[in-house]
């Protein structure tokens, strides 16, 4: 699988990251193993999870995805080959609670969450650890110093943030620079070909904005990863588009997407991933799958080449 740089860490990671949100919960263990093996056999080495996955599934409390990954890596004896990413901060402290009762990003919460994740994953280090949500009730300075201490202790190699606005990303990176702490090297945000309507309150989950895209273009030491790039199957027409994405802008972009997909001879899902991979800034999509056929389709996006005219048509559809 093609490798791309992660910021300026000096590390190359798989261009398609495998998102493990529902492995071991909605996806049964045997199918989860099959999908992980399939991704690994395709050359994929970048796995993404979180200590919160998947607390919202009935009977689950979070940590199930990490635990399954730990068992899989132990069985396959391949931990040293994997670039392993997890997130902390969003796991509820009370079973059945929502994000209002999340663990947050205090020093104590971060240290406890990271050490518990290490045990579940069966490893003594995490390659990339994200602050999962920008919980403003915790002082940013406390959060950043706690993460830096874990880097210095060898528990974490690199740091990222997820669901942060651009100004908060810059504030955090400048604060880390001033104190000599490890800086965020990447952000993981909701990002796809379609654009949500302006004025939507996304609460904890702000999508990648034009401002963030510009920020990543100007800062070569900072990478952008896209979660939910396929809107959980909405591009296939089998599921309705999420309400924030409905409107004239979406209609125009979907027409262009479908026209280019027909020209190229590919599926709309594959075209969305190919567009992300070939856009500016370069985006690392997280791909999810519940069966081998879906994963095979997603992996096929790596074989698609879009020329400049096709990229321009897709990007400029419906205007800016």
From TrEMBL:
<dbReference type="Pfam" id="PF00248">
    <property type="entry name" value="Aldo_ket_red"/>
</dbReference>
<protein>
    <submittedName>
        <fullName>Aldo/keto reductase</fullName>
    </submittedName>
</protein>
<dbReference type="InterPro" id="IPR050523">
    <property type="entry name" value="AKR_Detox_Biosynth"/>
</dbReference>
<dbReference type="InterPro" id="IPR023210">
    <property type="entry name" value="NADP_OxRdtase_dom"/>
</dbReference>
<keyword id="KW-0560">Oxidoreductase</keyword>
<feature type="domain" description="NADP-dependent oxidoreductase">
    <location>
        <begin position="16"/>
        <end position="315"/>
    </location>
</feature>
<dbReference type="InterPro" id="IPR036812">
    <property type="entry name" value="NAD(P)_OxRdtase_dom_sf"/>
</dbReference>
<dbReference type="GO" id="GO:0016491">
    <property type="term" value="F:oxidoreductase activity"/>
</dbReference>
